[in-house]
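Field reference: sequence -> structure
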Amino acid sequence: MQLSIHYYVLLLSEQMSRLYEGFRDKLIDIQNTHFPFETTIDVGNPASKDIQLKKFYHQTDQHFAHYYKQDPLALVVVGEERSQAIFKTLTKHRDEYIGVVEGDYTTTSLHDLGKIIWPVVKEAIAGVNKNAMRDLEIAVERHKVVFGIDLVGILWTESSFTYNVEEDYHLKGSTRKTDQGLLISK
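Structure field:
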């Protein structure tokens, strides 16, 4: 899983689970054979209701796995406290959580839901960025850093390196076939 401004939102309720793909504060409703995922729960018997909810949320997690396997992104889970608690005990995707938003948002517009969720995602990203900057400072102190596109181009095939690049940095180029050196297009 890579933490970025691109993420999933799983909205839970006792009647339906919805999946959204998020990019910053914009959400896209995923609608196909897996989502939205609906159930009818017998509210007459509380013990039966819990069993049905566990089954429903387990199936929701299986449906989510289909997407996560294709595109492993971070996950924000939205729902009332009880739904969240049950889901968290069943999910195989607990490690993908970057945040939760408690409450019933089933009737909230995508626009408004995106505005509610984005600060949670930003906070998670800020924590990762803070750790990355700390790691960079340590690497600088140990003289384990190279700067500049030419030096990075020479070392790009080394898998043991971490690359820190400013957001939205783009460079058109390619590599030489003979020595894998960097060729920058102008």
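Note: The longest strand covers residues 2-12.
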